[in-house]
Design goal:
475 residues, 16 helices, Ornithine Decarboxylase, Chain A, domain 4, 4-stranded antiparallel sheet, alpha/beta, Aspartate Aminotransferase, domain 1, single chain, Aspartate Aminotransferase, domain 2
Length: 475
């Protein structure tokens, strides 16, 4: 038995965070276990099992795992559902590897997560990027227009499918019904990264889910908005155009051979909770959010909420709050909320903070968030608004070589300020939200370098940029 002070940095850091009694507006969606049944949480140590008689096998399910996946399929409206214990990332990799052949094309929304780039590299597929619309007031990308997808399909008739991210990290939902119609009219497969939308199916007050709207295949991170443990996700299929045997084979390659029964059990429980009580819980959450927002009008607090997007819809459970009018960056506001008020948001960017609210959040959480924002307003209300640098008008960089080829090339480290004109070997991505600024095989432009420097100098984190501001380029 360990005694005294434990030399366990990760465990100790978690304990220190919990001591702050935080108001939790970040994932996982169970919010420190408050959204999970107490009976389940009390028995965690005994649930950590392996493949023994009676517990089934994730890769060859024939018993309780098969039954649990069938229940999830019925709940989410798919023809087939697979449990994922390596997160939506492995599901995205598997979907791309299933739909795309080596050398094949995939039309991809540029607002994709970095896992999509990894999937393209693993599949040896060639991306055709579509630029999303842009909201200059909040400094964020928004919807992928169906007309842009159709334009890409006309120019690339040999593409094997289309992949969109919906909802985005900011809760933006493109018009998926229309997108599905366009994609299917060209005989292509629609893949959806619905990592942030596992809850959509359970409320008519929210945008329609991918499976309901005509997507062929999608992933959902149950740990983001439902009461599942981190890495727990679902992969749903609703199309004869998807080769199920090939998908199963790819999942067997990508998923661990020692799956966590705790994660799988949490996926089962998360589905049961939403089937039984999801509609009621989400309506209560939406009512709480409406009351929370109404307080800002009454108090004349000058925060800006993202409450409209042209050409699409918004997930009302996702709070995107612009703070630049106080002369603060989102990064600075994030730090103030955490250190002074013990309110932890999900992410921040140059001008905004983003809160993930789920059915496990309490009205008291929103009261604490409101009090904290009011305190910030009182302290910083007289400061001149912050001018946000904009990222290179969101022009897409030139793709000089395919991502898979860049992966095979020899790389060399180079300072970011000397890399203009070079071919990136890695993914350079502000994280969160994990949307690439530069992808493997693309030319690094001076505008992109300036944008990355702006993020770093403002307190943000950019993955793919080392401590010495070095990046990986093709030799």
């Amino acid at each position: 038995m360990l005694t005294g002070v434990w030399n366990t940095p990760i465990y100790n850091a978690i304990k220190e965070y919990l001591k702050t009694n935080p108001a939790v507006f970040h994932m996982p969606g169970h919010k420190l276990g408050r959204g999970m049944p107490a009976e389940f949480l009390k028995s965690l140590e005994s649930l950590d099992l392996t493949e023994i008689p009676g517990t089934d096998n994730l890769h060859y399910p024939s018993g309780p795992i098969k039954e649990a996946e069938e229940l999830a399929s019925k709940a989410f409206g798919s023809e087939r559902t697979f449990f994922l214990v390596n997160g939506s990332t492995c599901g995205i990799h598997a979907m791309i590897m299933t739909v795309c052949k080596p050398g094949g094309k995939l039309i991809v929304g540029r607002d994709c997560h970095r896992s999509v780039i990894g999937g393209l590299m693993l599949a040896g597929a060639r991306p055709v990027y579509i630029k999303p619309e842009f909201n200059s007031d909040f400094g964020i990308s928004t919807v992928i227009l169906p007309s842009e997808i159709e334009k890409a399909l006309k120019m690339n008739p040999d593409a094997e499918g289309v992949l969109i991210t919906r909802p985005s990290y900011y809760g933006v939902c493109s018009d998926i019904r229309r997108i599905a119609e366009v994609v299917h009219s060209y005989g292509k497969v629609l893949i959806v990264d619905e990592a942030h939308g596992a809850h959509l199916k359970f409320s008519s007050s929210l945008p329609v889910s991918a499976m309901e709207a005509g997507a062929d295949i999608c992933v959902q991170s149950a740990h983001k908005t439902l009461a599942a443990f981190t890495q727990g996700a679902y992969l749903h299929v609703k199309s004869a155009a998807v080769d199920i045997d090939r998908l199963k084979f790819n999942l067997s390659l990508l998923q661990t051979s020692s799956p966590s029964y705790i994660i799988m059990a949490s996926l089962d429980i998360a589905r049961e909770i939403m089937q039984r009580e999801g509609m009621e819980r989400l309506e209560k959450l939406l009512d709480t959010i409406e009351r929370f927002k109404s307080n800002f009008g009454k108090g004349s607090l000058p925060f800006g909420f993202l409450d409209h997007v042209d050409g699409g819809e918004l997930d009302k459970t996702r709070l995107v709050i612009n703070v630049s009018r106080f002369g603060l960056t989102g990064f600075e506001t994030d730090k103030i909320l955490r250190e002074k008020y013990s309110v932890q948001v999900e992410m921040s960017d140059l001008g905004n903070i983003v809160c993930i609210a789920t059915a496990a959040n309490s009205p008291e959480d929103f009261d604490r968030l409101y009090s904290a924002l009011k305190g910030i307003s009182d302290r910083y209300g007289g400061i001149d608004p912050l001018k946000l640098p904009q990222p290179a008008s969101f022009e897409l960089p030139e793709q000089r070589i395919d991502p898979a080829e860049a992966m095979r090339c020899r790389g060399v480290k180079m300072r970011l300020d000397a890399a203009t004109g070079r071919i990136s070997r890695g993914v350079i991505v502000p994280y969160p939200p994990g949307i690439p600024a530069v992808c493997p095989g693309e030319i690094i432009t001076g505008e992109t370098v300036e944008y990355i420097y702006n993020i770093i100098s403002s307190g943000g984190v950019v993955n793919g940029v080392g401590e010495g501001l070095e990046i990986d380029v093709v030799e």
